[in-house]
Design a protein that fits this description.
The protein is of the alpha/beta class. The protein has a single domain, classed as Histone deacetylase domain (Arginase, Chain A). Helices cover 35% and strands 10% of the residues. The protein has eleven helices and eight strands. It has an eight-stranded parallel β-sheet with strand order 2-1-3-8-7-4-5-6, sandwiched between helices. Strand 1, helix 1 and strand 2 form a beta-alpha-beta unit. Helix 1 crosses helix 9, helix 7 runs parallel beside helix 8 and helix 7 runs parallel beside helix 11.
C-alpha cells in the first residue's frame, strides 16, 4: 500500500458550518469539527490541501432527496423553535429544534455537494466535508441527529452530473440507514455499511438480509458487528467484504462516511477501535479509491462523540491521508493545540496522535472460524450479497 501517493485534495469548510448546533448538552457538539480543523492546522495538514468555503444547498438540491412537506416542517420549526408537537421526527432529545436550523442544515448539505462537485469535475482527486455525513435523515423525517441527508443529496448530484455508478462505504458505528433507504432499489448505487449490530444499537437495522430492493438485489451490503469488536476484528471484516465488492462494482466515484464513533472511548456505542485502527481504514479506502474509482473520493464526516480525545485526531489523520501525506502515528500532538483545548474547554487533550495499538489483522483468505460471532457475521454478509456480484462467498 502506497501511503504517500501524491493527490490533489480539498477540505470544504468555513466556521459557519459549526452553526449546526443542537445545544451544549447534546452529544453532537460542533466543537469537534472546530477542534479537528485547529489540530489539522497546527499539524501542517492544511498546508497539504486546499480549504474551500462551503456554499448553501438550494431548495432544488434538497428536494432531490427530501419531501417538500418535510423541508417545510424544518423551516417552520427553525423560525419558531418553541413549537411543540412537531411532525417529521422533529423535537425531543435526539433532534431538538434550534433557531435557523434549516439554514444550518442546508449549509452542511451545500458543503457535501461542493465536495462532490470538485471531485466530479476533476478539480481535485479527493474532497472532504467533515461536518457532513448525516446519514440517518430520511426522505420524510429527521432522525438520529440528522436533519437533511447531505450524503444522499451529494450522491444524487453525482448521478445527475455524469456518474453512472457510485459506491458508498459507511464506517460509522451506526447503520447508515437513511442513505441505504434512499438508494435501496437503485442499482447504480452500492451502499456498504459496517456497524455495531442493530441488536444492540440505534437504529436497530442493518442486517445482512437487508440487501437491496427488487431492482437492485445485492447493492445494499450490511456487516453487523458484535459489540466489543476491536481493530483486528474490524479490519478483518472490512477487508473480507469491502475490497472485493468495490473491485467488482467498479464505481465512477467512491463516497465514504467517516464516523469515528467506533472508537473504544466513544460514549454512545460499544465497539473498541483505536485511532490507529481507524487510520488504517482511511489508508485502505484511499488505496481503494485509486484502484477502483479512478481516484475519485468524497469523504464526509459522521458520528464521533469523544469530542476531544478521539474526533480531532481521527479526522486529522483522515485529512492527511486524503492529501496523500498521512501523518505518522507515533508523534506528539502540537503543543499549541493542546494549550488551546485546555484554555477553551478546561480539559487536557491527548499528547500523541496514536493510541499505541497495532493495526494488524488476520486476512479472511486464511480461513474463518464459524464458532466466533464476528466470523459468522461476516460470512452472513458475504452469503447474502457476493453471489449477486458474481463473487464466491466461500473464497
Amino acid at each position: 500500500m502506497d501511503e504517500h501517493r501524491s493527490c490533489r485534495a480539498s477540505l470544504v469548510y468555513d466556521e459557519s458550518l459549526t452553526g449546526y448546533d443542537f445545544g451544549p448538552e447534546h452529544p453532537m457538539n460542533p466543537v469537534r469539527v472546530d477542534l479537528t480543523v485547529d489540530l489539522a492546522r497546527h499539524a501542517g495538514v492544511l498546508d497539504t490541501l486546499s480549504v474551500v468555503a462551503a456554499p448553501d444547498a438550494t431548495e432544488d438540491d434538497l428536494v432531490t432527496v427530501h419531501d417538500p412537506a418535510m423541508i417545510e416542517a424544518v423551516m417552520r420549526s427553525s423560525r419558531d423553535p418553541a413549537l411543540t408537537d412537531l411532525p417529521r421526527g422533529l423535537g425531543g432529545d435526539d433532534n431538538p429544534t434550534f433557531a435557523r436550523m434549516h439554514e444550518a442544515a442546508r449549509h452542511v448539505v451545500g458543503a457535501s455537494v461542493e465536495a462532490a462537485r470538485q471531485v466530479c469535475t476533476g478539480q481535485v482527486d479527493h474532497a472532504a466535508n467533515i461536518a457532513g455525513g448525516l446519514h440517518h435523515a430520511m426522505p420524510d423525517r429527521v432522525s438520529g441527529f440528522c436533519v437533511y441527508n447531505d450524503v444522499a443529496v451529494a450522491i444524487r448530484w453525482l448521478l445527475e452530473h455524469g456518474a453512472e455508478r457510485v459506491a458508498y462505504v459507511d464506517v460509522d458505528v451506526h447503520h447508515g440507514d437513511g442513505v441505504e433507504r434512499i438508494f435501496y432499489d437503485d442499482p447504480r448505487v452500492l451502499t456498504i455499511s459496517l456497524h455495531e449490530t442493530g441488536q444492540m444499537l440505534f437504529p436497530g437495522t442493518g442486517f445482512p438480509a437487508e440487501s437491496g430492493g427488487p431492482d437492485a438485489v445485492g447493492t445494499a451490503v450490511n456487516v453487523a458487528l458484535p459489540p466489543g469488536t476491536a481493530d483486528a476484528g474490524w479490519l478483518r471484516a472490512f477487508h473480507a467484504v469491502v475490497p472485493p465488492l468495490l473491485r467488482e462494482f467498479a464505481p465512477d466515484v467512491l463516497v465514504t462516511q467517516q464516523g469515528c464513533d467506533s472508537h473504544r472511548d466513544d460514549p454512545l456505542a460499544h465497539l473498541a477501535l483505536s485511532v490507529d485502527g481507524q487510520r488504517a481504514s482511511y489508508l485502505a479506502l484511499h488505496e481503494l479509491a485509486h484502484e477502483t474509482a479512478g481516484g475519485k473520493w468524497v469523504a464526509l464526516g459522521g458520528g464521533g462523540y469523544a469530542v476531544v480525545d478521539v474526533v480531532p485526531r481521527a479526522w486529522t489523520h483522515l485529512l492527511g491521508v486524503l492529501a496523500g501525506a498521512p501523518l505518522a502515528t507515533d508523534v506528539a500532538t502540537p503543543e499549541a493545540w493542546r494549550e488551546g483545548v485546555l484554555e477553551r474547554l478546561g480539559v487536557r487533550a491527548p499528547s500523541r496522535m496514536t493510541d499505541g495499538r497495532s493495526a494488524a489483522y488476520k486476512d479472511w483468505g486464511e480461513g474463518f472460524d464459524p464458532d466466533t460471532w464476528l466470523d459468522r457475521a461476516v460470512q452472513a454478509t458475504r452469503d447474502a450479497t457476493f453471489p449477486e456480484h458474481g463473487l464466491d462467498p466461500m473464497l
